[in-house]
Amino acid sequence: MGGNMALTLKAAGFDVTGSDVFEQARARLAAQGVAVVAPDKLPQSDVYLLSLPTSAHVREVIEQSPGLLNLAPKGSVIVDTSTSDPAVSRELAKKVAAAGLLWLDAPVSGGPKGAANGTLGMLLGGEDTTIEWVAPMLEAMSAKCTHVGGPGSGHVVKLANNYLCAAHLLTTAEAVAMAVKAGVAPEACLAGINSGSGRSAVSEVNFPEWVLSERFDSGFTTGLMRKDLRLAREAAQQLGIPLGLLQTVVDMWHSDAEQLGDSDDFNHIATPILARATQGGASA
């Protein structure tokens, strides 16, 4: 994701320097024409764009010596495109502001393909003035940006979105499995669902693109979705909200860890559900 964002911004005319803890990743980006440095050699910049696996990694980059709190020049912006813990984001945003820097959480949807062609969806949490300042960069990276509130708000809405996506993968798989068991072709079932109120991005995009095709190369892993669901559950618990269906979705995504590894494409969650529909043949 981060590498494709860097390439997109470079193609749009921005001066981009990339970094990664893995030398192989840096070499791959350098081979594509982007200047790269080791993490301990980060240059001073107007904007620092983070695309990292977890909030712990974001905290490390910002706080750990030398860290952006000490390295970044006053008035520069830290933009976190990761899917992070909102509570951690709000804590870091306060520290960033105290250091004379600006903060924007901007978690993304659209996967590596969206990052490569500049069509990401971005959920923005931060101040209007910060968004206005980095607007040219955001416009180069995205097809749509939605400002949802102050620091941390983007990550709250991103967790809500990923919870729904995870739930839709389960419910759509069960609905298609029911149709298959009754003798309806999965493609026909999806066409019907997508003409009605039950449709979702999962039924319109994920199932034809990655599930029925069995390509499973979306670029987003089961481990990352499991992490996001745990973050969503923690956020709900901190707010005192009854977990309800959220807990069921979390449990279902974690129940088959031996068969569905963290490194597997997240759309694979539908595979065992659909497989059960074909056991014993379809009914007519």
TrEMBL record:
Pfam families: NAD_binding_11 (PF14833), NAD_binding_2 (PF03446). The keyword Nucleus does not apply. Residues 1-149 form the 6-phosphogluconate dehydrogenase NADP-binding domain. Transmembrane segments: none annotated. It comes from the Bacteria. InterPro entries: 6-PGluconate_DH-like_C_sf (IPR008927), 6PGD_dom2 (IPR013328), 6PGDH_NADP-bd (IPR006115), HIBADH-like_NADP-bd (IPR029154), HIBADH-related (IPR015815), NAD(P)-bd_dom_sf (IPR036291). One of its GO terms (molecular function) is NAD binding. Residues 152-271 form the 3-hydroxyisobutyrate dehydrogenase-like NAD-binding domain. The active site is at 158. Keywords: NAD, Oxidoreductase. The keyword Oxidoreductase applies. This is 3-hydroxyisobutyrate dehydrogenase.
